[in-house]
Specification:
- By secondary structure, the chain is α+β, with helices and mostly antiparallel strands.
- The chain has one domain (about 10-170): Peptide deformylase (Peptide Deformylase).
- The chain has 3 helices and 8 strands; from the N terminus they run H-E-E-E-E-E-E-E-H-E-H.
- The protein has helices spanning about 25-40, 135-145, 165-170, and strands spanning about 45-50, 60, 80-90, 95-100, 105-115, 115-120, 130-135, 165.
- The longest helix has 16 residues, at about 25-40.
- The two termini are about 20 Å apart.
- Bound molecules: nickel (II) ion.
- Nickel (II) ion (NI) binds near residues 101, 102, 103, 143 and 147.
Length: about 180
């Protein structure tokens, strides 16, 4: 088990376009997936992308299968390892929702995201994943996959009157210090 340091906004490694994974079932990939899982769990994250721990690969993990204390009102998202993802919005409809990010500690902002989308990619074994999702699940996937393009959620905030400190916006929220 290895909980890795999470890079914070301002670190230029978060701005890179990540490289695709070419080899599966390698010890390096297994170690990366374990580190992402350990680090996300330790931080109560809803998701984590490889660039956030300084690894320049198209790998994200998200979900937990249970209620997340940082997002207590959010629907449960199944634990998912998603590699080399391709996202296809279904329809033009977007919806606004609050987001935070482990690389932007202590802040939350309202971000517009596509309401429904299809995502495809590969799992930890290199087997295909193909899902159609909506709402919070779709939001989490869009947020995490943005990390693979060097995009952090504050870059997508349109209304900065709804961007601020978690402890002020949501007093009483568990783990509001991150
Ligand atoms: Ni993030």
């Amino acid at each position: 088990m290895a909980v890795r340091e999470i890079l914070k906004m301002g670190d230029t490694r978060l701005l890179r376009v990540a490289q695709p994974v070419m080899a599966f079932d390698t010890p390096e990939l297994q170690t990366l997936l374990q580190d992402l899982d350990d680090t996300m769990l330790a931080a109560n994250g809803a998701g984590l992308a490889a660039p956030q721990i300084g690894v320049d690969l198209q790998v994200v993990v998200f979900g937990s299968g249970e209620v997340n204390p940082r997002y207590p009102d959010a629907p449960v998202v199944p634990y998912t390892v998603l590699i080399n993802p391709v996202l296809t919005p279904l329809g033009d409809e977007q919806e606004e929702g609050w987001e935070g990010c482990l690389s932007v500690p202590g802040l939350r902002g309202v971000v517009p995201r596509f309401k429904r989308l299809r995502y495809q990619g590969l799992d930890a074994k290199g087997e295909p994943i193909d899902r159609t999702v909506e709402g919070f699940h779709a939001r989490v996937v869009q947020h995490e996959c943005d990390h693979l393009k060097g995009v952090l959620y504050p870059m997508r905030v349109r209304d900065f009157s709804r961007f601020g400190y978690t402890e002020v916006l949501f007093p009483g929220l568990a783990d509001a210090d991150d």
